[in-house]
Amino acid sequence: MPKSPYLFTTPRLGFRTWQPFDLDDFSVINADKEVMRYFQKPLSREETQAMIDRMLRLFDEKGYCYFAVDLLETKELIGTIGLGWKTFEADFTPCVDIGWRIGKKWWNQGLATEGASACLDFAKQKGIAEVLSMASAGNAPSIEVMKKIGMCYWKDFDHAELLAYPEIQRCSLYRISL
Known about the structure:
It is a single chain. This protein has helices spanning about 20-30, 45-60, 110-125, 140-150, 165-170, and strands at about 10, 15, 65-70, 75-85, 95-100, 130-135, 150-160, 170-175. The protein is globular. The protein is an alpha+beta fold. The chain has one domain: Aminopeptidase. Helix 1 (about 20-30) packs across helix 2. The strands form two sheets. The protein has a five-stranded antiparallel beta sheet with strand order 1-2-3-4-5, sandwiched between helices. Strands 6-8-7 form a three-stranded antiparallel beta sheet. Helices cover about 30% and strands about 30% of the residues.
């Protein structure tokens, strides 16, 4: 029987490490202005490759990353859901962070919630005791996912890396103990 490409799955999603063939599809997602509304800016193909490279290094170092996520039914890359390592200047860093970025085609189907719940289970299996999540305070859809996966509001803060982006600098921080 062939080995599954997935580290873990949910009923609809497969989580794996990044592959060279992901660049085209992930570049399209990262270039979408609506998808990137609560980020500094849409990303170029080169910036998307740099992000993938960072995730591969993080996986090698820590055993987790923002994973490439496929819709199992079609094998399409829908985006990324997973765990990051945040070290920017704040009173709660360094920390493990959970986050997601999904192409518009797959919004409003519960996929971010399903995937993020699975990533919390993965974090627990890895022995991670606490996971944080942050989103621009106006990003109601992501904050709703945080609540749905059982995270609790902790506080709002001004993100140190977003000083040049006042419209998204104020972030809401959520956390969960595993």
